Amino acid sequence: MKALMSLGALVGVVGLLLLAGMIFDVIPSNTIRLVEGYMPMQMLFEVGCYVLGFTGLSYMLNAMGMGIPRFWQGIGFWIFFLLYIKYRVYPPIPFSVRAMYGTVGLVAVLMWVSANEEDWKKFKQPILNVLDAQTGFNKVLRYVYLIALPILTWGFSYNVMMPKSEEPIELRTVHPAPPASTKVHGKTYVLQTSLNPYRVNTEGKYDQEYSNSLIVEQGMGRLMKPNANPWDEKAEGYLKYVREGGEIFFQNCHFCHGDNLNGRGLHAFAFNPIPANFTDPGTIAQLQETFIFWRVAKGGMGLPNEGFPWASVMPPWEQHLTADEMWKVILFEYWHTGYYPRTWD
Amino acid sequence: MQNSGTQKAGLTLSIAFGAVLITVGMEIPAFAQGGIPEGFKKGELAAPPSAEMIEAGKRVYFTKCVWCHGVDGAGDGPGADRLWPRPRNFNQGTFKIRHTASGELPLFDAKKPVRGQNDLFDTVTHGLPGSAMPPWEGILTEEQRLQVLAFVTTQLVKDRSFTDKQSETQTILNMAELKPKSATEESIKRGSELIVEKKCIECHGLEGRGDGNAFNLKDDWGFSIQPANWHKCWNFRGSRQDPYNVVNIFRTFSTGINGTPMPSFADNTTIDERWDIANFVNSLCERDEEGKPLSIDPLTDKPKINFVIPSNMVEGDIPADIENEAWKNAPRRYVAMGGQITHKPRNFVNRIDDIWVRSLYNDKSIAYLLEWDDRTKSVAEGKLPWAPTEVNIDIQEQEPSTGEGGSIAAKQNNYPVYNDAIAIETPVKWKELPAPIKPRYLFGTNEQFPVDIVKWEADGSIRAFKGTGWDKDFEERDNYEEHLKVLKSEWKNGRWYVMIERPLGNKKDQDYDEDTFFEVGQYIPTVFFAWDGHNGDAGRKMAVSAFYYTFMNPPIPQETYIYPVVIAVGVVFLEGWVLTRRANKKKGKTL
């Protein structure tokens, strides 16, 4: 037990040091990367680790006779949580969202300290002590509070009222509702029934199972399967078209969507929001291939009036590419990210 | 270590096997100390990577790298012809960023992923900013990065050999023992004298904006190349995601950049002089008002962007002098620029990648001060190939795959020269834009919700346009131009300084069908366009920014001073109430 707890304490101390490093900018907050697409899970896991660490820490301190009163534990944990969401996460979360998390955190802490009558009393006691001010120290403290509180409220409200020029928040829709059909280069494509004409096996037949078996492996790096090299001269069917799609991608799309399809292309830094990240499980992995075809062909301009607001400077690619080229690019995007397109069934 | 390495290599490369065994027996040759430039030490090529590593690296290469660097590593992948700088041709073994002496192969050890001791690994890890090479850290594991380099160095570098210790030498810049000299005023001053003495300014220009000899420099493959702009350290290829670190500059200056006209200065400068120069160059990189390095956004490796451009109020006329206090106190904003690649003619390579914006306003007009680096002053020599207003014109664009000769890199500096230009775009009815069209398209939404464009060109003209749609031609507004003023336009040492003044708009009846009404205290969406005449930029071939906001700082309202006091007094009363209650409760009294 004791060994386990000291391990926990160690985790807690290391974690706190890391966070302190991030707060004082000694350690950049992206040292331990938040894995894209798994950010909420990772954050929950990390906070969980911290809680375990603090449990260990508190146990060890108690064992050494230096226990921290429940009152300060509660406040300390809440402050820790606020600092964590402010300094740990990059890109930073806006204040309004942090305030929401902070409130939830406060409620959680209050629930914890009021779990039973005994604990609640212990938690309240220091507050009442200061109010009653029976010792000299508490008297001083009470006067400090009496003077500091109005001054702080004054400063805070003055700050809030001072005209500021902070970037206004603009909400946007990420996945607008698609139309039933779309007309590209004179041909009508029904989104429910259209198929990617290049998702074919070596015999030229539409074969989703075959193509899905040849996409890159999920996992770090997302590398191609050892025997599925699109650059193999003998590559036929699906893999050959993946290569052709890749060629078009790297002549037209990578400038924004990036060499690794993560939305960090050469020009991406100039845009707001930055271009879509296809490696995120929340983008193309959630969508049907025909949806992507519609988005590629019609671009930001073709987005419907429903489901606003959106923000996209994606050009209508039908102005630059043929329908065949667009289908091939889509084929490549799924291959390179290792995702299957969603199907209608 | 040496032994196991050689054994593994022996399995695959019997020639290298022999060579390695010979050199292992030789130790460091006695002549090593002679002719080594100051700060360098003799080193050795690392042991060759294993066959398994090379094979694994091939898999990485053909998933990630082949698209730009090509099947044979000749820098001719499908993406290459629309990039400038072009992707590296690995075949010659010429690599830019190294810790080794000029002309030597870079440091690479497939077993040692240590920062600063493995040049190629650092390049793959941190990318080459200012080019299309991204940082691969976080995408490929450390092992995968080493594997792909094992493949590149053994299979794609064809004219030289990372494994042949007889034909290759390694003279390594001994950074571990070179401590940076502190950047005192004296050191920086000496650096500023040395860059003249050592002729740095001949290429990098008087102010270091890379404008010295911008049009005659070529790399080893005959493609035109531009000297670095010292004011944008985040674009230094060797900045290793740590752009304000003087060590990077010291390294590049000591080793030179292979394959380019940038030589190594190791032989004709002392270490002390090199630190002075590095300190001076580093001091030129853009900094904030307090002289601190700009904070760099780890997502983009460029300066962090603040999308709000605050405009301060001035009494009377807006000063035309940049040195005026009002301009000096106006906050400066970094505006990132990307190529316009949505409509023909597309601009895959934009030479202007940022502008700095300041703004002031008075009761009648608003002025923008725009400063941007452009290595050449370009004033049109001939007629434009298309009207500046036209979009989606039927032109032959850069072919995607033409071979090196027809690539963008080969065409750089051979374009007909057009006007340098800058434009500010604001939506006309920004307040009334209904939600579906709220994120305003570049170039206007439709006839009902047009944009107002003010464009200055290097021939001195200032014109106004109306944009009514993404793929509609602009309409020239002849009746508005007389209201516009160019307070200043000057090109000096690789930088444009342009000050444009325009009316605030119709204030009285707020009837603003054609030009934007700039309202105090409101966020007015603003976009910037820039053209580099030497890049063949004209019409829609230009650089564009995202939507920024012009925000005219309002005078501070009286309430700001009154309400907080009221609230504070309220808190005092509240405190009194709580304390009385508590005291009464204790005494057993109830209220």
Could you please describe the fold and organization of this structure?
Chain A has a two-stranded antiparallel sheet with strand order 1-2. Chain A folds into three domains: 2-127, no CATH class; 133-164; 181-337, no CATH class. With 345 residues, chain A is an all-alpha fold. The two termini of chain A are 52 Å apart. In chain A, α1 packs across α2, α3 packs antiparallel against α4 and α3 packs across α5. The longest helix of chain A is centred in the middle third of the chain and has 26 residues, at 136-161. Chain A has helices at 2-23, 39-63, 70-88, 95-113, 117-132, 136-161, 208-212, 238-252, 254-257, 289-298, 323-337; strands spanning 181-184, 187-190. The model of chain A has no long low-confidence stretch (mean pLDDT 87). Chain B has 591 residues and is of the alpha+beta class. Chain B has four domains: 2-176, Cytochrome c-like domain (Cytochrome Bc1 Complex, Chain D, domain 2), CATH 1.10.760; 185-284, Cytochrome Bc1 Complex, Chain D, domain 2, CATH 1.10.760; 333-394 and 418-552, Sandwich (Immunoglobulin-like), CATH 2.60.40; 558-591. Chain B is built from twelve helices and 18 strands. In chain B, strands 5, 6, 7, 8, 9, 10, 11, 12, 13, 14, 15, 16, 17 and 18 form a 14-stranded mixed sheet that branches. In chain B, strands 1-2 form a two-stranded antiparallel ribbon. Chain B has a two-stranded antiparallel sheet with strand order 3-4. In chain B, β12 and β13 form a beta hairpin. In chain B, α3 (51-69) packs across α5, α4 packs across α5 and α6 (185-197) crosses α9 (271-284). Chain B is globular and about 85 Å long. Classes of the chains: A mainly alpha (345), B alpha+beta (591). Chains A and B meet through α6, α8 and α9 of A and α3, β7 and α12 of B.
